[in-house]
Specification:
heterodimer, A: 157 residues, alpha+beta, five-stranded mixed β-sheet, 5 strands, 38% helix, B: 280 residues, five-stranded antiparallel β-sheet, three-stranded antiparallel β-sheet, 12 helices
Amino acid sequence: METIKFTLNHKVVEVEINETKRLLDVLREHFLLTGVKEGCGEGECGACAVLLDGDIVNSCMVPIANVKDHDVVTIEGYSKTKNFEVLKEAYAEEGAVQCGFCTPGMMIASEALLRKNPHPTEEDIKNGISGNLCRCTGYNMIIKAVQRASKSGEGLW
Amino acid sequence: MVNVIPKSLKEALKFLQEKPYTIIAGGTDLMVQKRGWSSTNPEFKQPVLFIANLAELNYVKVDSKAIFIGATTTLSTLLNHPSIPDIYKDALFEMASVGIRNSATIAGNIANASPAGDSLPVLYALNAVVVVQNIERKREIAIKDFITGVRKITLQEDEMITEIIIPKDVFTHRKWVKVGGRRADAISKISFVGLANIKNKKIVDFRIALGAVAPTVVRQEKIEAQCIGKTVEELQNNIEDIVAQYQQFIVPITDQRSTKAYREQISHNIIVDFIKSLSK
């Protein structure tokens, strides 16, 4: 087994683990980052989304080998940023959180979208969160939350 | 079983020369196909060779005749690249979701050789060529010869896909249709690519490819050849004959996503629709 070194939530970490292990499992079991959820385990739901080099990926499909020398940010790391504060506020204001299971993935998807596109249209937002399922909200509140964050966080993204 | 993360293409090819490996790029197909129960490790029968981090295969290069895409280039990179043909972007945009496109590769979609692989009909229609290498040599294979059946490809155990070449051709008309259960993350019930180049109402180039209606992508160059050289009007007067010829190659199955009858009918309708749209 090879030692796999990468940046996790802005700190350099190393793991010695089977290279085929899913990033999702390493995050939850080895680093105890349980904000990253397993929903479907096959790329349909987005509950396991994390940022890899700033782009959203589904951690249930990423073998740990693939993050070697890369940068991973989970909801735990993201929650220490100013962007998170703005997005959190917007989600709360719009009632975009109900049971909360999809929320870490949804916020990662929202951040990934706003980074690329600070002023997204409704259609852009739908595409940006198209890999994330929410069974509570019906999505309208989440879409509104992203629109609100885009305005209230003007200049951040 | 020793898995390996090679640092260069050369090193990867040396590993493959020694013994067979399962090659993983983005992992979006294989990590799901081989996943273990709950959070146990995925179960691979062979050691795994991880190529996602081979930067030397992550590129899009362009010359006057073709576009050259490195095997580890992700679908997102292609979707955002100015030189990728529009018809390909139409398909990429409807493939999976943002998170999957950020990991998934074009070479992986080819190697997976699913009858419902969404980039495949486009690559067939564009006459894409798959470049494979072992430590000693390179082979270039047309995609229609590279994919031989459901999840079957002509890759030797010591070879890997290193590049995909897409010839640059001009089209005045294009149509991409994906029929799926929902817009994102859906596996196609059927997929369709239609391309045509029309000059002075005359058909100079005409191509149709259909996915998920047979074990491999359906493309019939003999039927296309009959259409080339005709005027749009002549082709449209001949529409039933063309569709009837395609029908013998459209042999879908009924599965969890759709039925044989639905797939046949929809294929028929889309071909008619495409030919009718050529007068616009």
